[in-house]
Amino acid sequence: xxxxxxxxxxxxxxxxxxxxxxxxxxxxxxxxxxxxxxxxxxxxxxxxxxxxxxxxxxxxxxxxxxxxxxxxxxxxxxxxxxxxxxxxxxxxxxxxxxxxxxxxxxxxxxxxxxxxxxxxxxxxxxxxxxxxxxxxxxxxxxxxxxxxxxxxxxxxxxxxxxxxxxxxxxxxxxxxxxxxxxxxxxxxxxxxxxxxxxxxxxxxxxxxxxxxxxxxxxxxxxxxxxxxxxxxxxxxxxxxxxxxxxxxxxxxxxxxxxxxxxxxxxxxxxxxxxxxxxxxxxxxxxxxxxxxxxxxxxxxxxxxxxxxxxxxxxxxxxxxxxxxxxxxxxxxxxxxxxxxxxxxxxxxxxxxxxxxxxxxxxxxxxxxxxxxxxxx
Length: 376
Fold this sequence. Notes:
This protein has 376 residues and is mainly β. Helix content is 6%, strand content 35%.
């Protein structure tokens, strides 16, 4: 169902502008938006979220920051966003994608660099001001892996019932200790779902950059199916090149597993580690990284998330300068999914740094809307 009616707005608003930021991989190079906060204009509110080192919580009704146990609608921690509902909070906030910005991506789902780098908050404001339809369903937050959903790195064959690896998929991975890194490649994954025995076999390869080292090793370390594997969870410490016990060890960096109806990859941030992942990336691109790029913000951690995780709001490193580029997707945020009369806002994330160039300062703008009911 199309949620956005692209009728042109009747008024033109002065809004927050984005400006590309050049340079290398420093804090100041991780965004392309001028994040100076603007006053509310014609019903549009905007807010810069100081989320560089902690999670911040925002009430969209009042535009005020609140405590974690307060009445919040969205929360941000660097690149990650959550809604107050489902696995993320005690409330009943839900969301939906309204404008996917499909023209920002090619037929293979890869970012169109020209579109990203030429888009501005001004040029994409029309989507925030559109006429929306009520979505078929409101999505609440659930567990979200730093490696993304399982269908990002694996594929299901309905004819055979077998789940296997997608070709040419890789990630950058940070260790549980937070001081070593690896290029990880999904080599093999075999999950014959109709056999009823869980995951049958897998192989992941790691080129490791040990703590204090300056580049990735050229000798891959292999995480393969252990002899006593029962088809559920298995964990790997790539620094030690060992399979470790998921429950008793705090040193594992990557977990592969199956539980209930879900198969997954997890980073150590699911437990008590400092791990995370960046990607997915085609292996040809990942192989061009000789070392960890030195941009901590690149790594996401396992978390809870929903529509704002399923439809990422940015692309990274489009011009080789380690920048974050917003795609100006428009989301609908509903205050209470159980109440048809509760408030709904259209929301965009339009920037990632402050006036001094510091990263981890995402800028959101939102507008209360009244979605039209779908015609029967």
